[in-house]
Specification:
This protein is α+β, with helices and mostly antiparallel strands and about 45 residues long. It contains two helices and two strands, in the order αββα. A two-stranded antiparallel ribbon has the order 1-2. The protein is globular and about 35 Å long.
Length: about 45
């Protein structure tokens, strides 16, 4: 199961620009602090 979660991630990420101007992908969390599941990723 760990392999599937790492090979086919379903957690939503957003792109942010760092101080150095480089874009980074960061996970999105809901109000409770839980990771948000990407409905688009689950649909595949």
């Amino acid at each position: 199961m760990d392999y599937l979660m790492s090979a086919f991630p379903v957690h939503l990420h957003s792109i942010h620009s760092g101080v150095d101007g480089e874009e980074r992908s960061e996970p999105v969390f809901d109000a409770d602090g839980s990771p948000v599941i990407s409905q688009e990723a689950v649909a595949f």
